[in-house]
Each structure stands twice: as structure tokens, then as C-alpha cells.
User: Which sequence fits this backbone?
């Protein structure tokens, strides 16, 4: 179990590093907070203690927003490909100093940890991490200042991953929220569509926002500001369903459900047929228009 608060990083980071480089066992991510029913659903999805294929480093649960959570089998190679792809896209081959604000047992928070492992940097936790307390501008400010202090020493650019409600809360906190966000080299926003006016207002204020499209089955974001990462292909099938192909794609689900979603791709990659509907324009910009399952 990953305890809430900064202690969660202390538990996850060494275990994740060993799992990703094959010097330690695969890990199953379990939340250390939340309702008894929710924690039981996640445990049922990831099935800790049961064997997994050798290449798997992490088993984590989907959000369960459209049904019961599914356990996703993530190889270490997929996590590394996702981390390196993001570093390449942002022009920071040495990686970022991350502030961790999202739950570590889901894809957004896990990828903050995985990118930090690949970069060899220690993320800084917001005090509210993992449900330790309610997310607030004051807690975010404290974590940002701590990260800035470390960044001044090792000259790493700062990054943070947020969901739209967090972004909206910071934007509504007088001017301090936007000022804090301007300290970051990149502010990822994903997990749900961000309101267009919010994105425009913060961008106009000088915040370097990157909207993220991805899911647990693709190790988080595979397209940023609508453009797929290098080595990732996103295609729209005839019915509008989006399919993602790349080294970042997971092996499948723990319980082998929905096997039709997974197909082998070229050169050892994999394809995941999502439940998202969308289009790709002539410039390669991906736009999400809905869901197959509503």
C-alpha cells in the first residue's frame, strides 16, 4: 500500500526503480487511503501476490470511471519509453524536477514517479498527496518553493501534473496561483478535458500548459497539445474509435478482459484500441469527440 502524503514517495520510489530495471520484483499499486469499498475494488483489480509475465514492472488500476477498475500490466520498457518520450518532446533530455500532486497508484501520479526514476531526480510531494488532506494553493506553494530550491542547485527545470479541478482552484486563488504555475517549465493537465477559457486565461498569464491525452493502458500521456509523441501512432478507425500504437502500450489487463482491445504492432510495439472517439487532422492534431460507450 502507498501511504498518503510525502511518505508515499518514500515507499514507491525505491520499489519502482528496482521494478523498472529488473533488479526487484514487479509491484502492484494499492491506495493507502479512500473508502473500504474503493480499496477493495483496486485490490481485486491488481491482485497483489499473483504471478505476472516477466517483463511486467507495475500492475496498476484504471480509474474505474466507466465501470469496475481493471488491473493494467505495464512493462518496465513501456514506462521508460513513456518517460523518455516526454523528455524528448519537451526538449529536456536530462529530465525534470517533478512536484507530485496526483495519487501515485493511478497513471498520472505513477508517471511522475517513473519520469523521476528515469531522470534520476527526487520528486517533491504536495502535502495533500494521495488524500492526506484537501489540495490547496498553500500546500502547492510550499511544494513549489521546495522544488525551486532544489532546482537552483541542480538546474533542473520544474514540472507538475494536475487535473482540471486543481488547475481551476489555483487559477481562482487571486494572482498567487498563476504566479506559482509560471515557475514551472511545463504544467501538464489531463485526466479530463480542461475548460478552454481556463487554458486560455492561464496561457495568456504566461503559464506553460500542456494538455495531455492518454490513459493507464498507454502509461499516461501519449499526445500533448494534440500531437502524438515521437514513435507513437494514433489513428482513427472507420467508426471514429482511436487506436494507439507504440512502445508505451501495456501488455493487457490482469484478468484478460476485453482482449479485442489489444493487438500486436510493428517492431515489437503494441496497439491499444481505446473507447475514445476522435479525429486526426492533416497536421496530425488529435481531437477527442466522445466515447464509444458514452
Assistant:
Amino acid at each position: 500500500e502507498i501511504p498518503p502524503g510525502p511518505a508515499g514517495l518514500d515507499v514507491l520510489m525505491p520499489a519502482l526503480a528496482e521494478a523498472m530495471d529488473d533488479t526487484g520484483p514487479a509491484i502492484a499499486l494499492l491506495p493507502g487511503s479512500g473508502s473500504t469499498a474503493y480499496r477493495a475494488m483496486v485490490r481485486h483489480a491488481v491482485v497483489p501476490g499473483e504471478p505476472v509475465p516477466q517483463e511486467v514492472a507495475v500492475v496498476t488500476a484504471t480509474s474505474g470511471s466507466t465501470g469496475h477498475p481493471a488491473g493494467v500490466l505495464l512493462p518496465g520498457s513501456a514506462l521508460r519509453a513513456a518517460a523518455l518520450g516526454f523528455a524528448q518532446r519537451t526538449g529536456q533530455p536530462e529530465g525534470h524536477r517533478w512536484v507530485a500532486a496526483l495519487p501515485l497508484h493511478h497513471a498520472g501520479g505513477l508517471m511522475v514517479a517513473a519520469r523521476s526514476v528515469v531522470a534520476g531526480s527526487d520528486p517533491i510531494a504536495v502535502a495533500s498527496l494521495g488524500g492526506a488532506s484537501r489540495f490547496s494553493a498553500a500546500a502547492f506553494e510550499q511544494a513549489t518553493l521546495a522544488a525551486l530550491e532544489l532546482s537552483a542547485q541542480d538546474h533542473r527545470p520544474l514540472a507538475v501534473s494536475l487535473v482540471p479541478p486543481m488547475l481551476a482552484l489555483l487559477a481562482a486563488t487571486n494572482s498567487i496561483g498563476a504566479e506559482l504555475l509560471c515557475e514551472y517549465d511545463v504544467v501538464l493537465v489531463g485526466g479530463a478535458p480542461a475548460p478552454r477559457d481556463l487554458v486560455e486565461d492561464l496561457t495568456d498569464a504566461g503559464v506553460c500548459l500542456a494538455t495531455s491525452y492518454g490513459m493507464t493502458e498507454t502509461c499516461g500521456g501519449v499526445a500533448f497539445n494534440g500531437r502524438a509523441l515521437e514513435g507513437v501512432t494514433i489513428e482513427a478507425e472507420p467508426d471514429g474509435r482511436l487506436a494507439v500504437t507504440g512502445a508505451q502500450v501495456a501488455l493487457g489487463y490482469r484478468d484478460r478482459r476485453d482482449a479485442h482491445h489489444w493487438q500486436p504492432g510493428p517492431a515489437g510495439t503494441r496497439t491499444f484500441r481505446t473507447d475514445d472517439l476522435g479525429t486526426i487532422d492533416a497536421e496530425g492534431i488529435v481531437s477527442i469527440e466522445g466515447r464509444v460507450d458514452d
